[in-house]
Structures are given as C-alpha cells and as structure tokens.
Amino acid sequence: DNSQEIHDRNVPCVACHIQGRSLVNVFPGWQSCPDRWSTEYRGFLMTERSVYANNKVPVCMDESPESLEHIPDADARGAMFRNMEVVCEHKNETSFCEAYTSGHELTCVVCSV
C-alpha cells in the first residue's frame, strides 16, 4: 500500500496507444480482459466526490499508482481522487447489482487488442 506516498501528489496521466494494436478500452467492473485481449493494467475506478463542482469523469487508476513531485496545497489545485463504490439500496435490484456487493470498490481493467 503506497497511499501515504501518493497523498497530495500529482498523478501522471496515461493515454494508451500501443504500437500494433487497434483498440484500447477500459472495462469498468472487470478484473481481467476478455478473450484475445491483452491486459495493459488493472486497478480501481476513481473520480472526485460528487459534492465538488468540478466533478470529473471516472478514470481507471492503476492498482499500483505512481506519483510525481509533492505540491504544497495540492488538495486545493486539482482532482482529489476517491474510489467509486457500488451502491445497491433496494432488495429487488437489477441484474447489475446481482454481480456486485454494495459498499465495495469498483475494479477496472485496461485492455488492448
């Protein structure tokens, strides 16, 4: 667990382009890639808390994230990533909720083909 090492640090951005591969895709809620796809990395879906005005689109954060240099007051300058969790509040949930446990973090995997 490197959560203390990455607290208040910039997160490097990744935009996947893999030579010889035609498609890179994030599979939310998955832990492995479909058949014939290659795993680039796996991790957890993260975003800012919904109470922030600049709420961002969810991203798949590597399960072993890297960080850049420490920035004083970094928490006031950009996204404060938080794990996304499943919320299933009703007994008669859709098939989506049958596959997940309420209160657990959502995994993700980035795959290429």
Automatic annotation (TrEMBL):
GO terms for cellular component: extracellular space. InterPro entries: Ca-dependent_lectin. PANTHER family: PULMONARY SURFACTANT-ASSOCIATED PROTEIN A, SHORT-CHAIN COLLAGEN C4-LIKE. This is Uncharacterized protein. It comes from Capitella teleta. The lineage of its organism: Eukaryota, Metazoa, Spiralia, Lophotrochozoa, Annelida.
